[in-house]
Amino acid sequence: MAPTGRAALLAALGSLPVGIWEPGWTGILAVNAPLAVACACDFALAAPVRRLGLTRSGDTAVRLGDTADLTLTITNPSRRPLRARIRDAWPPSSWQPGTETAASRHRLVIPPGERRRVITRLRPTRRGDRRADRVTVRSYGPLGLFARQGTHTVPWTVRVLPPFTSRKHLPSKLARLRELDGRTSVLTRGEGTEFDSLRDYVPGDDTRSIDWRATARQSAVAVRTWRPERDRHILLVLDTGRTSAGRVGDAPRLDASMDAALLLAALASRAGDRVDLLAYDRRLRALVQGRTAGDVLPSLVGAMATLEPELVETDARGLAAMALRTSPRRSLIVLLTTLDAAPIEEGLLPVLGRLTQRHTVLLASVADPHIAGMATARGNADAVYEAAAAAQAQAERDRTAEQLRRRGVTVVDATPEELAPALADAYLALKSAGRL
Amino acid sequence: MTTEVTLPSTSASPTARQVWTRTRGITLALVLLLAAAVAIAVVRSDARHGELDPRSADPYGSRAVAALLADRGVDTRVVTTLDEASTATGPDTTLLVAVPDLLTPGQQARLHSAFARSGGRTVLVSAGSASVERLAPGVTADPATSFGSTLSPDCELPAARRAGTADTGGIRYITTRLTADECYPSERLSTLLRLPAPSGEGDTVVLGAPDILLNDRLDEHGNASLALQLLGSRPHLVWYLPSLADASAAPEEGERSFFDLLPSGWLWGTLQLFIAAGLAALWRARRLGPLVPEKLPVAIRASETAEGRARLYRKANARDRAATALRTTTRTRLAPLVGVPAPQAHAPEALLPALSAHLQGDGQSLHTLLFGPPPGDDTALIRLADQLDALEREVRRP
Q: Are residues A210 and A278 located together in one domain of the fold?
């Protein structure tokens, strides 16, 4: 229960009759007693909040950056009309900063025995699950002097999925994949290693791909065609440890890694490969395994939605053991982690041998464009020291990458915008070289 | 015909029964606390209640002396306002002013003019510097009080001589009146003064401490004797206990405060405005539901370590390390451009000839630039960075 601004205004106007006609306790009483009675009547006549019926419906998942509409249906079972202000409370990150007051509050009138719908529009700013908090209803009396207030709990969860902004690169990478796949006319030896079929020689074909045995058996000259391997296994390993928490630009490294992983998964599932996902820091955070090509992308997106960077050092030994257990067959293991010297040298390098023994390992790391900017700073002493520190950091990264390359690991180090296409290119290069 | 669908209740507000269940413990505790407070207050309220009141039988009251005076035919009347005290003065009346310091300067002046011409006796009990100069002109109170409480008379006043030692120790007085009787001195300043009125009839007695009038001190030394002689010289005793309820304590005309000058309508109108402000505060204070908590993500910039290292270099003036880092980077970038394999990029004998051949430049200055000693100051470091940039641009130029 609460008075309204109107009650306060009436009380303030009451100071005029008190001051002019009847200064004294009589005047105070003459003004405030009727006001109190009016407030009491208003309180008694306001529609009860407790008996309202509230139900919710609407979106359950939304891509980061899009809007989700949630419908709240409110039934007024009482015999009094409901004049109310309603706040549909959600966590603050469900809205763009500054818009949440306008987006969460509604004003409506429901005649007795009827129901109305209000739509709350969410525009989340972060990945993860958003759970509805309580719904607060303030019901005003007919005079608008006093209100009763109550809360209802109407649970609902909206899962905010990764934005997958790199999907704009998918058409070009798919075109490149089709070139490899022998579906286009550009078919040269060396593109893939799996024997596909024999066909008649066409002028322009590489003479080295003529199959002389087959030519001998038939009248025309036959050439062999090749296609890239299919049904290979790819294991995406997301490192969710402390190094993934650092922000590059406006988002943590983990988000850029996810974006790249999603593009790779989309591409690989079109190419007929099987994609699994493993997220690990000191324990298993997410595991997606054995999905069909059509199902893999939604399940990856769903599993990634709730992943958050943890502020712990990644247990590389446990991660390698988990990766080996997850991929019993020969696979391409894509490690989405960091190139910082200490975690790689102390964590990953000692266990790398076990991974490279059976599998092809690809390491993708998010580079920071800010470091590159610092490296070109000139003009005063501060700037030059910054440039020196950035050069030092860059040299360390390069040295770590070189160490990994020497052990047979393919390394991709790119800024968040370029990581996804670079990783896709690295995958296509491995595929065309037949190293999967 | 519509069927009634009963929705499961989603209300999260507590019902009246739940509110009672939740708050009854605290309500009970509060009630107990209040009861205990009242009980303790009642038990211990006797401490200093009714001090110097002739109707009070407490240790600090003065009922005993009033009773003794009544036995000797002196009637005691208690007054609490200045008007009553002023009209009660007369030649056959003793006026006792219990705590003169409580009177305002205006009241003191009126009281003095009332008893100065009456011809009766006035007894001022422990009058401090706030009141003694107006009520007994020519007398000032010494800021330091006496050490002991029990003093001997040392004067010619018959009452004091008969009483002997008494508990008059308290405020000490200095007087310029030659006719005054100065009794019970402590450190040469007296604690009891009798000042005869200039007109001849009547006198004023200034007493440094109220102890001789208190119930629990009356039977010690010569207290009772001194009190009875001082108060029993006239058949009537008027005991003036100044009170805050006295209307004469209000400021005089011309000294009224700002609020007295305002018309009462303004004051009552403002009171009503305060009520309105209270309602507005309630209106604004009632939130439409509580804040929603949320776990915030970690916000660390990935480049923090590099920035920190830059500031460390700056603070330690690590020009050697900075120059090494810049030179190493430039050498690493130049080596593939001039056809030197990466492992030999940092060997002068491999890199410098290839560079010189590419640029047709001076080998010595290239050696100083790429492998020379660290710069001596920050200006040299900035110049070094610019020269390295220039070199790289020149090599890259086709």
A: no
